[in-house]
Design brief:
elongated; single chain; 4-stranded mixed beta sheet; 9 helices; mainly alpha
Length: 295
């Protein structure tokens, strides 16, 4: 059911892109929007790992460069019954991590340099278990595709904004049809990026709980993951990372946060990239109690 919801949300993002095309150029624009959606989806599928690594500044590291990290990734991948993913590092003091790739055979796990000094071995292994959980659930492909489509929608809306500002569509406003089209384009400029962002964030929030549970099962240490999340959130709140907001949902905790996540207001929760950390910790504690994995 969760996979069906995600596919539906990705289809909605593509439909928004096609709707923009229709508003600009009627049926011809709709066809162009459909073609753009196909190209973007295809590009995000085949090059999702490269896109995410480039957008975050992550660099792949060899076994010689990071032997301990490679060993731990290999051990956790073995526990998850997955092939060992490639390993990358981001030169940033904020402790964080993400995984990307179109499938388990083309996956990459990336960690920041900051996470290596903040977490102990059990906590770091639990974080890697979370990321391997994303890979096992194929969340990483969906997350990158959603980010790329949403970015394209936002870019088109931004382009239209400047076209309207400089009067590029002024000649079409002399008749009723032109006015309707102008109003539609104004609505696109305002509403399309918001709708794309809400859909992208809804995909991310739904997947984080599943990766937490999968990570707890893989390593058998839900409490270590809970402890890691608490540390990562505290440091991320104090040291926001300079990354594109469109890919912020790929990380295990929101890298852009300037304050701790809340969880009470429904409207505010629509614009959160991740479920509130206290709620994630509560669920991990419940998993520990239910399964007896008190580690």
């Amino acid at each position: 059911m969760n996979n069906l919801k995600t596919v539906a949300l990705l289809a909605l993002l593509s439909a928004i892109l096609m709707g923009i095309g229709f508003a600009i150029g009627n049926m011809g624009g709709l066809i162009i929007g459909f073609i753009i959606a196909l190209v973007i989806n295809g590009g995000a599928y085949w090059f999702s790992d490269r896109i995410a690594l480039m957008a975050t500044g992550a660099k792949e590291v060899s076994v010689d460069e990071a032997p301990d990290l490679h060993r731990m990734v290999e051990e956790v991948a073995s526990l998850a019954h997955l092939p060992k993913p490639r390993v990358a590092m981001i030169n940033n003091d904020q402790p964080n991590a993400f995984a990307t790739g179109r499938d388990a055979h083309h996956a990459v796990v990336a960690v920041t340099t900051g996470i290596m000094s903040i977490l102990d071995q059990r906590e770091l292994a639990a974080v890697l278990g979370h990321e391997l959980g994303h890979i096992r659930n194929r969340d990483v492909l969906v997350g990158t595709m959603a980010a790329v489509i949403a970015s394209a929608i936002s870019f088109i809306a931004w382009t239209l904004q400047w076209a309207l500002f400089w009067g590029g569509m002024g000649g079409r406003g002399r008749n009723g049809g032109g006015i309707v089209q102008l109003v539609a384009m104004l609505a696109i400029v305002i509403l399309a990026p918001i709708a794309a962002m809400i859909v992208r964030l809804a995909i991310s929030r739904a997947r984080e709980f599943g990766a937490d549970e999968a990570g707890a099962q893989i390593t058998g240490t839900p409490l270590a993951l809970a402890s890691a999340l608490e540390k990562l959130e505290a440091y991320a709140s104090a040291r926001p990372m300079n990354v594109n907001p469109a890919i912020s949902h790929l990380f295990i905790v929101n890298p852009l946060r300037g304050r701790r996540d809340g969880g009470g207001d429904f409207f505010v929760s629509l614009f959160q990239t991740h479920p509130p950390i206290p709620r994630r910790i509560e669920r991990l504690n419940e998993i520990a109690r239910r399964t007896g994995m008190l580690a």
